[in-house]
Write a structure and sequence with these properties.
This protein is mostly helical. The chain has a two-stranded antiparallel sheet with strand order 1-2. The longest helix has 33 residues. It starts with a strand and ends with a helix. It contains 20 helices and four strands. It has one domain: Up-down Bundle (Growth Hormone, Chain: A). Helix 5 runs antiparallel to helix 6 and helix 5 runs antiparallel to helix 7.
Length: 445
Amino acid sequence: MTLPDPHGAALTSQPPSNRLPPIPLAWLTWGLLASLYFVGFFQRVAPAVMVDELMRDFAIAATMLGNLSAVYFYTYAAMQIPSGLLADAVGPRRVGALAAVAAAAGIALFALADSLWTATLGRGLVGASVAVAFVACMKLAGHWFPANRFATVTGISLLIGNLGGVLAGVPLSEAVSGFGWRAAMLASAAATLVLALFVWLWVRDDPTERGYASHAHPEALNNGTMSAARALMRVVSERDTWLLFFAGGLIAAPVLTFAGLWGVPYLVQVHGLERSHAAVFTTVMLLGFAVGGPLLGALSDRMGRRKPPYLGAALAHALGWMIFLLAPDLSSTALYLLFAVIGFSAGGLIIGFAFSREVNHPGAAGTVGGVVNMAVLGFAAIQQSAMGWILDRNWRGTVIDGARVYDAAAYHAAFLWLAISAAGAVVFVALTRETRCRLRFDSDG
């Protein structure tokens, strides 16, 4: 029989079972919700291949373009803690389905905007709505998969998200050239609306809703006794939460700033590449990011350690950005390899999400995910805007087809901060305390 869902859907009533959910069912359920993260990442980096069109259509310079792109990150970051609290209190399914509807509306508003203000409003709505995707995925993973696979599953979510970033590279560049950026964005809005329907109809917050046993910790299943205020207080009072907050933000921001906005115009204006060719380079970085997440997460799970693989990845990431700054005349082959290493090592940040979950109470899993992920996008927003400001401060007055052109010195001044950010991540990871892939709640009693 079916039981009415107070939020409008029908849930299938199943007899209690000690049988854990089949792996294909777990991946399908989790993967549908993770598809919203794909949409979010696509929208996150899409402006990188629309720089000239956006500058011309809205008559703006680098600073304002940086702000237009970054408003997605600001609203995304601002929604992280509310998203975590909602995921804990309401459940990933409801939050995810409604967020997908709101994201589709925001994408359409951006695509149809006739003013910079309207475009900014639309992009801000997109960021605020897809903000729930990653946090909800982590929450769902804790119910549908065993705890010792959490970093691996979370890494797969990064892979799925970065595939959205790959789609926003060469394929979107070609779509923009062939049909215009507005048509391309409207098509993505329609696809997002379809996704909302599938999430609502299929996803369930816990395997028990389909008659299977849950992987969730008993404290997570009983977290209704923990208020939102108490969950947040427990998370922010944990020392390692803040170390992982800064580590994740500082390691992610350079990749999201370069591949998400300023990398393509840099390669076009300084190295003289065609836009589609330039997008291939940034796509390589995102592919490295995509692959690095699940592989480094799986390595951490297999080692039974969090700190050593995370610290090693952070060191490699910082070294990659330093080489990029100090060796600007690398061959195309060397640059491809360097971007792949930078992206792959940045994927190590996924270990930080499993790490942060283990140092906090299991009933606050969504909340801690939101807190840590707030830095990942918040720091990227600050860097995107700051890069635009630095570029405008170093602009020599060159304009081509209504868009500003910046020289190598201007980009070097801006990109110096990418290396500084990556070096800062190393320091914060080094200060964390190892969990050995176990919840401290269990260890502490």
